[in-house]
Amino acid sequence: MYASREDIGYDFGDDSKVGNKPIKPNPNIDGGWAWMIVLSSFLVHILIMGSQMALGILNMEWLEEFNQSRGLTAWVSSLSMGITLIVGPFIGLFISMCGCRMTAIIGGILNALGWILSAYASNVHYLFLTFGVTAGIGSGMVYLPAVVMVGQYFQKRRALAQGLSTTGTGFGAFLMTALLKYLCTEFGWRNAMFIQGAISLNLCVCGALMRPLSPKDLREKYVVRSDSEENRAKALSHSTETIKSNGVLGEEPEKKEEAANEEVLGSVQQIEIGGKSGSGRSLYGLRILKTVSQLTVTVRKGFAIWYSSYFGAASLFTNRVFVAFIIWALFAYSSFVIPFIHLPEIVKQYNLSRQDNVFPLTSIIAIVHIFGKVILGIISDLPCISTWNVFLMANFTLVTCILTLPLMQTYVGLAVVCALIGFSSGYFSLMPVVTEDLVGTKHLANAYGIIICANGISALFGPPFAGWIYDITQKYDFSFYTAGLLYMVGIIFLLIQPCIQKKQPREKPTEEAQV
Q: Which helix (H) or strand (E) holds 145?
């Protein structure tokens, strides 16, 4: 169906010209420290995404504690999940200025603070601010760098690396569900959140492991990528036309910006040299001025890159397939989140609590989700398999399961559907790979930030919508049906855009070229 990279509108943004001189590959690309980055990302997914997938346990505690409607209470969980993803584009600005390591460390502190402050909540609205907003922003500041760093360190085995790192979501959902259930039973939900806040400080350690690649290392990665695609010479020659429309930044503005920055810093250095004969206080003031100037230059350069990527002439939104990908993301993620938040209530309604206590349905999703990510990642890395096709097939399976789940009212039936949901949702490990292939490595941080922002909007409104439908109908059936149908609309957009792009001419007529 879409077997080649051209079929899904790949942006060949990494087509740097390379001579015949052999370049020694960097050992940290696809090896060495790259596996430490995978470990760091794996732990981040356990502590952030795994904890969020276990919020159904706390949701039941909040319902009993504050006696609010299901729709209102569900906003606490959805705010945390949604904001984690919605802030993605803005976190891209932090990454441009501070780097992935510093952004992740600050985010780990914010996330832990949100959990700890939530232990003192007196009402649901207090949780909106502390857990939804504070912990959500902190989670977003750690999550995006964890994904971006894996994409930077891997080239040949990107799908496998992303699959291994994102299996932390499944492990985390399984472990955190059991942990929160135990902590709530033994110490109460308030102490459980306090303890979880202390555990979340380990996110700072994960951020410290995110050692940035040097510009030289990144250039070597691009060289390896271009060398492995020499057989695509025709596509690369056409890419010189499509790069401008798909949003690759030019080199001349960057050079002018760097020249202006060097001029500013050079003038400050001259002032500092001339003032060495002055008093120590004057030298101290000049050093402060130099530091402020360097910080200003960094902020200006980071903001310029971030702004041009989203709103400038090099906008990512000129890529039609990428826009379709965004529309899909607006509907997809809620279909995965709703079961995690409301399944404990559904089990209680069907009088299946005894079986669910032995092996929770959310744990079934989490465990199979691990295998789904790894297996789909391995399949996608096979040379004869298209990542795009694997991604679409997994989406079709997941939407079928969402529409089928309300028909199951026995534990065995629910367990089978939940297992299929867990396996098919393993396509999450392919999202960074598909995104990078659509826009190029240079724009991965900003592009993936947009995608997870759309996922965040979906997660923000999905669980409250399901709770609101229940408050009206006293059933969750219509919630799953509506979510499944909207999900199907997003998949249709993914199918239509590549077909339209196929029909459009890729090159100018030969007559014009001859003229």
A: helix 136-153
Residues 6+ apart with CB under 8 A from 324: 493, 494, 496, 497
Terminal-residue alpha carbon distance, the chain = 36
Q: Is the pTM of this model over 0.85?
A: no
pLDDT of residue 361: 83
| Cα dihedral value 57, 331, 319, 220, nearest 10 | 20
pLDDT digits (tens, 9 = 90+) for 247-267: 333 444 444 445 555 554 555
Query: Which amino acid is residue 117, in one-letter code?
Result: L
Whether 453 and 86 have beta carbons less than 8 Å apart is answered as: yes
Whole-number pLDDT of residue 495: 83
Instruction: Give the CA distances from residue 140 to residues 28, 48, 91, 446, in Å, rounded to whole numbers and listed in that order.
Output: 26, 9, 7, 13
Domain ranges of the chain: 26-217, 313-504
The answer to which of 257-271, 367-381, 455-469 has the lowest mean pLDDT is: 257-271
Average pLDDT over residues 402-417: 87
Q: What is the mean pLDDT of residues 423-430?
A: 84
Report CA 107 to chain centroid distance, whole Å.
14
**26-217: CATH, from 1.20.120.80, 3.65.10.10, 1.20.1250.20, 2.30.40.10:** 1.20.1250.20
Burial of 225-240, coded b for 16+ CB within 10 Å and e otherwise, reads bbeebeebeebeebbe
